[in-house]
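Question thread 4412

I'm putting together a teaching handout and wanted feedback from people who do this every day. The idea is simple: show students a protein as raw sequence, then show them the structure tokens that encode its fold, then repeat with a second protein so they can compare. Below is the first pair exactly as I plan to print it.
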Amino acid sequence: MYLTTTKHFRHKTFFAYKFTIFVTIVLAVLNLYSWFTNHINNFFTGYIINANATMKPVTSVSFLILTVPFFLKKTPTKVFLILGFIIQILQLIGIGLKIELTGIYSFSSVATIFMFCLAYLSAFFINISAIKNYFITTTSLLYLISSFAIFFYLLNKNSVSSFFGFESLSWNTSILFFINSIALFEVVLMENVQQYNFKITPYKKTHPYQYFPYFFLLPILVIMAISTIIYYNVISKTLGVYIIFLFLNVLILFSIFLYTFRFIDFFKVISQKSKELYNANKTLNKVNNEIQEKNLYLEDFATITSHNLREPIIALKELQNYYKESFKNGKLNLREVEQMYQSNVTNLNYGLNLLINYHDFIKNLNNKTLDNISFSKSLKKTLKSLEYLKPTNTTLNFKLNADIKLPEAHINNIFNNLLTSSYMYNVEENELKIDITTYLTRKYFNIIYRDNSTKLNQQTTNLIIDNTSEKLKNYNNDRSNNSYGLYFLKLYIKKLNGKIDLFNNSNKGNLIRIKLNHE
């Protein structure tokens, strides 16, 4: 028990409850000692206050039982509380049967028995069943009855004995019930907030742990001290009662102010944390959406990679079979094989370039700090990088009436796809003509791209405009219908919040109109 008591008393909370347990045990033990040594005429028994209302030994035992929940766990506590109830019931039966007992076997007053029942019920509701509503009722009644007895003793110590049930209620007993009722209130309130004992600095100063003890301990100390001073006639009863009521009134006002003040602090912290949580959640949702968008592009990337790499391998195998068969039949045409080989390498290079550009697009998808480059500079840079792919009979005409700066990664990809598509769809024996015109309107930077390539048919154009990658995947079974480059173009334009229109004429070629918002 010593270790348990030391452990409990070392803890920084439950000041009022600990003090109450200590006072209750000391007074109960001293009272028992006084009775068993036959020296009851002292202050601790209440004899010198009112000889007819001396604290009885059974009352002391009942108070010791009330302190058990502080030291023991739930199961043994339940046993002791039941024992306490039995003691009170036996006393009531004895009083009802008018059994006269004297000395150490004397019964407690009816008021004392009733208050013990209330106290045991309160302890039971806290420690065993956790029924808070019933606890408030029983503890409030205990507080009211004990307060009534104390203040009657202060005003006229003999007048309280005129009430039924209070005939032999001692002042000491009333004080112990009073401080126990306050301490029980502290226990239940601390039970409600102990799980929120935040370690974080902003919460720590607002936590009830920091000021609960003072609200419960101070009334106990002040009322006990003033009552003792009144008894010894240091001050008058009227002045003492006035001091007590003034103190309680100030304490209530101060507690209301402090609770409100701390609640406002706590509300500010909670509001700030809620705002931070909302912003974090908003950012998280944004990142999640960006990841989902990237995942869709990565899915396309995986499918297109498989298509663009598998197709040249199949073509190489076919070329190998053609070579073997032609060599076996003696009909090998080296120039034709060379052209087929070169065409396959060109297609492979074309596909790899598309994938590289698409990879850059995915990588920079959500990059907010992309370097800008002027339209004209990007065009020159892209033409230079695709020089190896340009057909020999190609004519380029530029009419750049306006210029604009755009993210380099995106605008480079636009030119790369436009020019690559023209180069790849051109029929070698015809001269390839490419015209690029730019101009500004009130809202848009306009790009008109024309070429005379004839292999981009209307079906492919419709698929690109629909922006349906799944249809394109199913449609692209050979290189002649490969439209991934223009499909990527649509994605790049969309990323720049632009618009694209494709017009195809099987005889005249293609016209692509791009409108980019420049406001």
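The second pair follows. I'd like the answer to focus on this one:
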Amino acid sequence: MLSFSIERAIILHKNFTIATFHHNVSMYWNPSIYSLLIKSEPVPKPPAFQPQNIPSLFGVCVYVFMCHHSIPGIVTPVRDKSKILCRIFIPVFITVLSFNLLLSTTAIIAFNHIEDIYTLNFLPNNEFIDISQIPYTLALIIGYFLCLFPVFALTSSFPIVGTSLLGNIFSLCNFFSAFGSDKAQNILKYTLPFVVLLPPLGIALITNNVGYLTGFTGAIFGSGIQYIIPALLVFKARRYFTHCVPLKESYLETTTDLQQSDDTTSATVGEQMIQPNSSNNNTENENIMYGSTNDITTHSVSIIGKCSNHHLLSISMHASPFQNFFWIIIALIWALFCTIIVLIDKIHHL
């Protein structure tokens, strides 16, 4: 698309005539120039700023989070993660940003009207297609492939996004005691997939306006996936960790002693964990679930220290810089603001 749009921009700025096209058959492999054969178009002069399009920006930009699904696949194989920010994250994000800026810039200098789906600008006109000529055939194949490319991309990513949303909603429901029974779990198991699938399918069948679809679904459902559900999960997880995992100062002081314990003590502890007393088995399970104050190991203390900044633990080098409750409030306010702005814009056009 970059090469096609650049070639079209050069043709527009050099004022090529239709006779020039007929003498240069090699240009016909570019599907974006066929609209110029019908009528000449002026050089695109897009406005630098359009305030009325700001609400649509909120909904469309939510789809950028799709790129975040690739981050775990990039991070997991890396053994040394001490400098992963400078070595991987920054170069990857700069590369993606540069590509998006280059694609957007070539689009606004090559087309006076950009379709809701940018690839539709490369659909060739069948009136000028002659399948007996190789350049025309290439233009037809390339044009339809580019038009169907968003279908391929969305079809491949929709199961990933749907699975992520299903897992987030299921995890959120498990935080409430009302969904703890087996009957409630079975109901969630068979109803949540429909909750995830029916809204996007219903909206897709109702409207064919892609701009409306991306803005509306991106602002409401995208904000829920990207901001609201993660913020609630973080809030509930921190609250659970703070209240249900009560680490005492004595446990932290004996961490060094636990690390230096001999094999006999470790074997004794292992036997106690493997062969619990049947009379108090349920009590021990409850203590493990809600934060046992009788059994604590060096491994559990080290894991807790790496995963969270508990009020009794020293700050870990891997601790998140967004541990303040203020960041959760900001995420929820931003999600509400984006949703209101997009809804006002969509209702205004009705």
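Top answer:
Good format. For the second protein you could add a caption like this: Confidence is low (pLDDT under 50) at residues 248-256, 262-310. The first helix runs from residue 2 to 13.
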